[in-house]
Design a protein that fits this description.
Elements (H helix, E strand, L loop, with lengths): L12 H11 L4 H8 L3 H15 L4 H10 L4
Helix pairs in contact: 1-3, 1-4, 2-3, 3-4
Length: about 70
């Protein structure tokens, strides 16, 4: 089990991995391949990340995640 501080509990382990990959410039297709998920699965997680972080774009989500110490 991963011990998480307050901001981390908002995102699942998969969502944290996805936001890290996004911050490293990977495309949805590349992330799907690395994580053995469908493109739709990655996009689903992205929408959940945006909702949980109250972000409208990947760039905004990455910025928020960095400011909260998630990535």
């Amino acid at each position: 089990m991963v011990h998480r501080s307050a901001p981390f509990f908002l995102l699942s382990d998969q969502q944290i991995t996805i936001i890290k990959y996004l911050s490293n410039g990977l495309t949805v297709k590349q992330i799907a391949s690395k994580m053995y998920l469908s493109i739709n699965g990655v996009n689903y997680h992205k929408r959940q990340i945006f909702a949980k972080l109250d972000a409208k774009t990947s760039t905004e989500a990455i910025s928020i995640a960095k400011s909260k110490g998630i990535i």
